[in-house]
């Protein structure tokens, strides 16, 4: 068992980074404190639009007042299905001010996925894009008995740009069966809803649905205390100045974006820069316009930025810290990015169930690479957090040995929404069993090997896809890589690799297989390599191995 206080490098951190974390009771509390301190400071920057803390406060008050007028009560659930626009933040604070629980939903969900969320969470209010409402959600919401309030928004609001790279829809205006979010907020602007109980750290802030890779998606109940702890831990750990600009590279509906970008930014009274959704050229332009000090995103986003023909060192010159999370970070990518653009990408590790990070790389340090496996460390546990590597019986394994990663700390959710059996299995006695395989070295650095379910069994030998992928990423022609097991009559399973290539590169697949064979044990190298234009990903940037596995 290793805790933060055991770390041999602790003396290298400054006093603020070593100190225990003392979070606000909630991010809403931190937001109200920022409104009091810096009312005129820009809270949200969206293309050429700006909202100050005072304006954001008044508009979110309007949404809260509207919800309360419509009978929305403390503890009711509101689904927010929006991209990275100011509406998302206004809706989030509006729901919390009304005493509600936010259910963040991936905008790429379809009717069947949304039906499950609306039913499972018994959602009262739906907040979505106008085109989504017209496309399918009006009918889906109408079929859900609990839904009785709907608000719609348009990505063209609150700015004047006409960037067709991402802003592709026309403004549709008020929709049948729904009210316009921005018009509603302005109509009720500045009305502080009365009679709403004060939020506490133990109140549920989010019901965050997992991806459902191992069954029906479950709702992790992230409390206000979970979020506020990790937001404050990130703010003090990074050492960013008060009022720093954060760029929302990760989507806000994902726990990484929600906590590491939005909540951490607000906790420090900063400016959150938004650009609707990820498009490499738009993001690079936004970096030059907003000059952010911090961002966090999946490794695949950095691959796309590196591959963009317009990318230069100046695009990244304002950053004090760039972090990666949500997808494996190959060591070769870290070095390529630093050589081309300057910043060192800091790794991190977390899950929805531990409200984003439970381990990260402190600013003064660089993550080591394991000499045997070539795996880049994801970081070290933070204050008040204990990470264990355990065997199948839940016993600690020695340093350097692989086992399941288990996490205990103030960021771990109390459970899954109305799923006591799943809670008891995944979070026994408050300790999260992550389902990830990893190991820890004697200095306390954590390494993630892979997901339990992704392990390939080739002739009785264990092959972890991450190890093969890291070798592929070291090839100069490879942009993205994913490795899966495929049926093999002789071996049971054999290793297959899917790759996308950097611009102008065209290696023969056999060459890539031979490259791996030179660097890996005979049972590990891919017997087949298939080149695709792009690898399938979630909207948070994680490569979908399961889709590739289904291709055969």
At the fold tier of CATH, the topology name of the domain at 27-37 and 46-199 is Rossmann fold
Estimated helix fraction: 25-40%
CATH level-four homologous superfamily name of the domain at 27-37 and 46-199: ANL, N-terminal domain
Indicate the overall shape: globular
The CATH architecture designation of the domain at 27-37 and 46-199 is 3-Layer(aba) Sandwich
Give the CA-CA distance, first to last residue: 40 Å
Radius of gyration equals: 23 Å
Keywords:
AMP-binding protein, alpha/beta, five-stranded antiparallel sheet, AMP-dep_synth/lig_dom, GMP Synthetase, Chain A, domain 3, ATP-dep_AMP-bd_enzyme, ANL_N_sf, seven-stranded mixed sheet, 16 helices, 552 residues, Rossmann fold, single chain
Give a quick summary of the entry:
This is AMP-binding protein. With 552 residues, the chain is α/β, with parallel strands linked by helices.
SSE layout:
Elements: E1 2-3, H1 15-18, H2 27-37, E2 42-46, E3 49-52, H3 53-69, E4 77-81, H4 86-97, E5 101-104, H5 111-120, E6 125-129, H6 130-142, E7 149-153, E8 179-180, H7 181-187, E9 204-209, E10 219-223, H8 224-238, E11 245-247, H9 255-267, E12 271-274, H10 280-290, E13 294-297, H11 299-307, E14 321-324, H12 331-341, E15 345-346, E16 348-351, E17 356-360, E18 380-381, E19 386-390, E20 403-408, H13 420-426, E21 432-440, E22 446-451, E23 456-458, E24 461-463, H14 465-473, E25 478-488, E26 492-501, H15 509-517, E27 528-531, H16 545-551
Parallel strand pairs: 2-12, 4-5, 4-6, 6-7, 7-8, 11-12, 11-13, 13-14, 14-15, 26-27
Antiparallel strand pairs: 1-19, 2-3, 9-10, 16-17, 17-18, 19-20, 20-21, 21-22, 23-24, 25-26
Organism: Streptomyces ochraceiscleroticus
Domain AMP-dependent synthetase/ligase: 31-417
Protein name: AMP-binding protein
């Amino acid at each position: 068992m290793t805790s933060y206080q055991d770390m041999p490098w602790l003396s290298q951190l400054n006093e603020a980074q070593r100190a225990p974390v003392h979070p606000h009771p909630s991010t809403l509390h931190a937001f109200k404190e920022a409104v009091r301190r810096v009312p005129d400071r820009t809270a949200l920057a969206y293309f050429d639009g700006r909202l100050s803390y005072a304006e954001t406060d008044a508009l979110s008050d309007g949404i809260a007042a509207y919800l309360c007028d419509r009978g929305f009560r403390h503890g009711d659930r509101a689904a927010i299905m929006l991209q990275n626009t100011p509406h998302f933040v206004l809706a989030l604070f509006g729901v919390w001010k009304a005493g509600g629980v936010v259910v963040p939903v991936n905008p790429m969900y379809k009717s069947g996925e949304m039906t499950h969320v609306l039913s499972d969470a018994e959602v009262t209010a739906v907040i979505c894009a106008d085109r989504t409402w017209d496309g399918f959600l009006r009918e889906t919401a109408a079929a859900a008995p609990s839904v009785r309030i709907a608000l719609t928004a348009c990505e063209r609001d609150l700015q004047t740009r006409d960037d067709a790279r991402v802003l592709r829809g026309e403004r549709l205006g008020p929709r049948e069966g729904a009210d316009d979010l921005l018009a509603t907020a302005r109509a009720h602007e500045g009305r502080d809803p009365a009679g709403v109980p004060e939020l506490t750290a133990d109140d549920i802030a989010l019901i965050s649905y997992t991806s459902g890779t191992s069954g029906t998606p479950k709702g992790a109940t992230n409390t206000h205390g979970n979020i506020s702890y990790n937001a404050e831990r990130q703010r003090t750990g990074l050492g960013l100045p008060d009022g720093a600009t954060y760029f929302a590279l990760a989507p806000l509906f994902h726990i990484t974006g929600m906590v590491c970008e939005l909540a951490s930014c607000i906790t420090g009274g900063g400016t959150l820069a938004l650009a609707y959704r990820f498009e490499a050229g738009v993001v690079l332009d936004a970096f030059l316009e907003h000059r952010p000090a911090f961002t966090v995103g999946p490794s695949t986003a950095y691959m796309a930025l590196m591959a963009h023909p317009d990318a230069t060192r100046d695009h990244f010159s304002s950053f004090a810290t760039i972090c990666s999370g949500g997808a494996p970070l190959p060591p070769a990518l870290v070095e390529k990015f630093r050589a081309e653009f300057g910043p060192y990408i800091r790794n991190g590790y977390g899950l929805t169930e531990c409200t984003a990070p439970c381990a990260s790389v402190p600013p003064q340090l660089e993550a080591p690479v394991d000499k045997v496996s070539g795996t880049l460390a994801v970081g070290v546990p933070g204050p008040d957090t204990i990470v264990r590597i355990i065997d199948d019986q839940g016993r600690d394994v020695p340093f350097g040995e692989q086992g399941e990663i288990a996490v205990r700390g103030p960021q771990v959710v109390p459970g899954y929404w109305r799923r006591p059996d799943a809670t008891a299995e995944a979070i026994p006695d408050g300790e999260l069993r992550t389902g990830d395989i990893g190991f820890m070295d004697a200095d306390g650095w954590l390494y993630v090997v892979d997901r339990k379910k992704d392990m390939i069994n080739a002739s009785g030998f264990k092959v972890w896809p991450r190890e093969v992928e890291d070798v592929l990423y070291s090839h100069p022609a490879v942009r993205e890589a994913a490795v899966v097991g495929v049926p093999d009559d002789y071996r049971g399973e054999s290793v297959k690799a899917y790759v996308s290539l950097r611009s102008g590169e065209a290696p023969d697949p056999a060459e890539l297989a031979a490259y791996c064979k030179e660097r890996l044990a005979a049972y590990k190298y891919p017997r087949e390599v298939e080149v695709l234009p792009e690898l399938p990903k979630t909207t948070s940037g994680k490569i979908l191995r399961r889709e590739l596995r289904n291709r055969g």
